[in-house]
UniProtKB/TrEMBL annotation:
<protein>
    <recommendedName>
        <fullName>amidase</fullName>
        <ecNumber>3.5.1.4</ecNumber>
    </recommendedName>
</protein>
<comment type="similarity">
    <text>Belongs to the amidase family.</text>
</comment>
<dbReference type="InterPro" id="IPR000120">
    <property type="entry name" value="Amidase"/>
</dbReference>
<dbReference type="InterPro" id="IPR020556">
    <property type="entry name" value="Amidase_CS"/>
</dbReference>
<dbReference type="Pfam" id="PF01425">
    <property type="entry name" value="Amidase"/>
</dbReference>
<keyword id="KW-0378">Hydrolase</keyword>
<dbReference type="InterPro" id="IPR036928">
    <property type="entry name" value="AS_sf"/>
</dbReference>
<dbReference type="InterPro" id="IPR023631">
    <property type="entry name" value="Amidase_dom"/>
</dbReference>
<feature type="domain" description="Amidase">
    <location>
        <begin position="21"/>
        <end position="441"/>
    </location>
</feature>
<dbReference type="GO" id="GO:0004040">
    <property type="term" value="F:amidase activity"/>
</dbReference>
Length: 452
């Protein structure tokens, strides 16, 4: 299956039928999904009906939109009216969505063809994808390994060629980590740029929406269709310009810094070596200037993130049917949420404010910050998350220490393929200051051009 831009352009010109593309995607899902567990729900009837509608528009001389005929996987955390809405949890195994999120609505309006829901760990709270409800999701590069999480089903679906694009969320790295492990592009835009309405329940202001694709241009095309103010999302922002038109921007003279560990994040030496080499190639390719990173993320940021995000999980759990056992991770979130007091909240917000200031000051010294997108290579598909990295013990947040800080600050950050470790991909993370999304994605496109 070809990519988003190629499919859409061929369908819009009448050289390719949306129904043909959609049936091909459905066939690939049927062939590969049982081994990978990427999709948890497929609606072939709806998808084909939607595809035929797109083909009728083309036949009548109408333009279906920039995503015409593109099969789309939808992460199960994103509601689609009439489809299951379990969010990876047995607590909501019988729930059906009564509305569709803005992200999917805008993609459909641009011509996309949703084909089904992709797997997530329960409520998206892990960097691998497995749940008691759906089982284990596996990496197409090596089925013994995880595709990452929490957008692991989307990553596996795209990497396996079932669909060219699938939606995702990123609360602490859940777009960038799967992109890194599956050799894809995963872009967390500036907070608010991709709208999360209607009825998004998150209160921590950490959760970003986006998509996983195989190319930077495919990501740009999607963002040009879905970004922009949404009256149902109080945090939504205007689109910054045209992503696809900005990919060839001149980056000469940019100040670029590299940090393997952000001061306190242990990194597997094999990953650090591959990513550092990729960073050097990017700097040389665009004619940038290397400057020291000199960045250290406060170790208290992990505790702050947990405090700020615990109420989001509590919001889901308090409405759940009673009498069903909670996974240990969710029990931990619930206990944390019910024990949060005013002092803990004040401390968490103060820690976040210090991090924002630290990184704002750092980005006065450089324009882009490069880091590994993941601190370890892909680990076993069944989990657990790493408890030791490079000989150092880590907790949940320590294993996400290169990704979650940029959720706290709301800065744009993208993972693009940097190479492989033992035959499995690892990603380079490119981070920019808030609202520098066009620059970040242009740098990702330059990295892609190097052809690692």
């Amino acid at each position: 299956m070809t990519g988003v831009v190629d499919i859409a352009d061929l369908v819009r010109s009448g050289d390719l039928a949306a129904a043909t593309v959609t049936q091909d995607a459905l066939n690939r899902i049927e062939e590969r999904n049982s081994a990978l567990g990427a999709f948890v729900h497929v609606d072939a009837e709806y998808a084909l009906a939607r595809a035929h509608a797109v083909d009728r528009m083309v036949a009548h001389g109408e333009d279906p939109g920039p995503l015409a005929g593109v099969p789309l996987g939808v992460k199960e955390l994103h509601p689609v009216a009439g489809w299951p809405y379990a969010m990876g949890s047995r607590l909501y195994a019988d729930r059906v969505a009564d509305h569709t999120c803005t992200l999917v609505t805008r993609a459909v309006a641009a011509g996309a063809i949703p084909v089904g829901l992709t797997a997530s760990p329960e409520f998206g709270r892990a960097s691998y994808t497995a749940s008691a409800l759906h089982g284990v999701t596996r990496n197409p590069w090596d089925p013994a390994l995880t595709p990452g999480g929490s957008s692991g089903g989307s990553a596996a679906a795209v990497a396996a060629g079932m669909v060219p694009i699938a939606t995702g969320t990123d609360g602490a790295g859940s777009l960038r980590i799967p992109a890194s492990y599956c050799g894809l592009v995963g872009f967390k835009t500036t907070y608010g740029l991709v709208p999360r309405g209607p009825r998004h329940r998150g209160a921590a202001d950490n959760d970003h929406y986006g998509a996983l694709t195989r190319t930077v241009r495919d990501t740009a095309r999607f963002l040009d269709c879905v970004c922009g103010i949404d009256p149902f999302d109080r945090a939504s922002l205007p689109a910054p310009g045209r992503f696809e038109e900005s990919l060839g921007a001149d980056l000469r003279g940019l100040r670029i810094a590299f940090a393997a560990d952000l001061g306190n994040a242990p990194c597997d030496p094999r990953v650090a070596e591959v990513v550092a080499a990729a960073a050097d190639k990017l700097v040389a390719a665009v004619g940038a200037v290397v400057v020291p990173a000199d960045v250290r993320v406060d170790e208290q940021c992990g505790a702050a993130y947990r405090t700020l995000s615990a109420p989001d999980v509590y919001t889901q759990l308090r409405a759940a049917p009673r009498g069903r056992e909670l996974h240990a991770t969710l029990r931990g979130y619930l206990d944390a949420a019910t024990s949060v007091d005013a002092d803990a909240l004040a401390d968490a917000h103060e820690t976040r404010a210090r991090l924002v200031a630290t990184l704002a000051e750092a980005f006065e010294r450089f324009d882009l910050l490069l880091t590994p997108a993941t601190q370890v290579p892909a680990f076993p598909a069944e989990g657990p998350m790493p408890t030791e990295i490079a000989g150092r013990p880590v907790d949940h947040w320590g294993s996400l220490a290169v990704t979650f800080p940029f959720n706290l600050t709301g800065q744009p950050a993208v993972s693009v393929p940097a190479g492989t470790v033992e035959g499995v991909p690892v990603g380079l993370q490119i981070v920019g200051r808030r609202h520098a999304d066009l620059m970040v994605l242009a740098a990702a496109a330059a990295m892609e051009e190097i052809g690692l």
